[in-house]
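The authors assume throughout that readers already know how a fold can be written as discrete tokens. Each protein is reduced to its one-letter sequence and a matching series of backbone shape codes. I therefore recommend that a typical entry be quoted early in the introduction. For illustration, here is how one protein appears when written out as sequence plus structure tokens:
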Amino acid sequence: MAEGQPQNLTTGRALRVIRELATKSENILIVEHGQKRSRQRNISAVQIQQCCLKGTIEEGPFLNSHGNWQVSLFRHAAGQKVTCVVAIDWPSKLIIVTVYSGR
């Protein structure tokens, strides 16, 4: 993925990019706020990665205030519901803004 950030981003393309980047955990950066919320809500880094790999987009994509494409991903597995707010630092990183349980 050497291309620059697109001006328009479809849901399908956003999901493909997120899933491709999420295959390697080193491509996932959980910012301080996301780390704090994941600890408070007992959501592990593995659950966050699985949400990125197998979740569905509930909101977005839209450009956030930092100029990155952002989505909300939802995953329900093993009785637990996890939502991750993910910004794409094009073309190589996923930034986990926050996470929460339920829906």
Remarks:
- Helices lie at 11-22, 32-40, 45-54.
